[in-house]
Amino acid sequence: MSSVKKCVVPAAGLGTRFLPATKAVPKEMLPIVDIPTIQYIVEEAVAAGVENVILIQGRYKAAIEDHFDISYELERTLKERGKNKEFEALHRIANLASLTAIRQKEPLGLGHAVRCAEQAIGNEPFAVALGDDLIDAQVPGIKQLVDCYDRHKKGVVALMRVPESQTHLYGIAAGPKIGEREIRIDHVVEKPKKDAPSNLAVIGRYVLPSKIFLMLKSIKPGVGGEIQLTDGLAELARVDGLIGYEFEGVRHDAGDRLGYLEANIAYALKRPELHDGLIDYMKKTLAAEKK
Ligand code: UTP
Predict the structure, then answer these.
(1) Is 21 near ligand 1, meaning CB less than 6 Å away?
(2) Is any ligand 1 atom within 6 A of the Cβ of residue 30?
(3) Of 263 and 63, which is predicted with more confidence?
(4) Among candidates 141, 139, 140, which has minimal Cα distance to 160?
(5) pTM for this one?
(6) Which residue, among 55, 250, 248, has the nearest Cα to 147 in the 3D structure?
(7) Cβ–Cβ < 8 Å for 102, 53
């Protein structure tokens, strides 16, 4: 039995990199082929044994709640028209997990977004999965972290190696190796401008003890004037210990335009009905580019 039953999904950011698409539609609802990014995240959480998803949402985020709710008119119409497969697919989404929606009144940063879940979490370890970070893996990303948490009973963050030229774009963690894929984090810093302590970037999956809330309440705004989760993690590492886990699988940053396009291609290639047509198109496009 998994020790982690709740997962916080922060989805209250402004999504400025996707304007104007995100003017009225939350970034997390943009589809990867035909499935909104956030549905992949919720499915990953459920596959890891999570029962309650705590969605942190902003002002224009009702679409996310609606997506995971029953749509009576649509379901009735599909049934009446004998579209049973489509009906089942829609109905399944509404029953994936119990969903608690919490409003983050202002986008004050990821640390602040997580802090908004304090009451809903109470006194138990919980997962955090960013609403725009996709992990394509045989063992779901969150499950890999939960297993690591169960081994150490310490907070865990997902790590991925990045080129040194990109360390300024991520939270970067460092510390001694304690297992094949594990380090004990003694240093974690948000978007280091220079002298990054390693090339291990913190990616949008975490399993945290509830004492992280104490730390998030006392930290001051950091990089970009936001309450940074990374600063809370640094304090957690100091006081309680924190493990970094180099996850297995491929990560796509669907919150970035290029990452979003790459994710669409990668996921479309996994669909038998799209695979050949897309390969043909890419071959033709590459050939035309070379001319
Ligand atoms: P990002 O920094 O990628 O999201 O945060 P953003 O701020 O929406 O993006 P841009 O830079 O303006 O395009 C990572 C995740 O944390 C959530 C976002 O919704 C995203 O899923 N987030 C961020 C919050 O929920 N609240 C915040 O205050 C900030």
Answers:
(1) no
(2) no
(3) 263
(4) 141
(5) 0.94
(6) 248
(7) no
Q: Quick one: 45 exposed, middle or buried, by C-beta within 10 A (0-12, 13-18, 19+)? A: buried
Q: Phi/psi of residue 2, each to 5°?
A: -70, 145
Residue with tokens 């939960």: 146
Q: Which of 19, 27, 169, 256 to mutate to test the pocket of ligand 1 (most atoms within 8 A of CB)?
A: 27
Q: Which atom of ligand 1 lies closest to the CA of 11?
A: 19
Q: Which is nearest to 137 in space by CA: 245, 254, 250?
A: 250
Compute the distance from residue 77 Cα to the ligand 1 centre, in Å: 36
CA distance 171 to 203: 8
Listed residue (57, 40, 27) closest to 142, CA to CA? 40
3-state secondary structure of 182: strand
The arithmetic mean of pLDDT across residues 201-206, rounded, is 97
Q: How many helices (H) and strands (E) does the chain have?
A: 11, 14
Question: Is cis: bond before 20, omega within 30 of 0?
Answer: yes
The two three-digit tokens of residue 91, written as one number: 């109905």
**Residue 197 DSSP code:** S
Residue from 32, 1, 254 nearest 129 by CA: 254
Give per-residue pLDDT as tens, 143-198.
999 999 999 999 999 999 999 999 999 999 999 999 999 999 999 999 999 899 99
Q: Which of 94, 99, 103, 110 is nearest to 60 (CA)?
A: 103
Contacts with 148 (C-beta within 8 Å, 6 or more apart), sequence order:
156, 182, 207, 243, 245
CA distances from 28 to 21, 41, 48, 68, 273 (A): 11, 10, 20, 13, 25
Helices within 48-153 (DSSP H only): 62-67, 72-80, 84-94, 110-115, 118-121, 141-152
Residue 130 contacts residue 169 (beta carbons within 8 Å)? no
Domains of the chain: 6-255 (3.90.550.10)
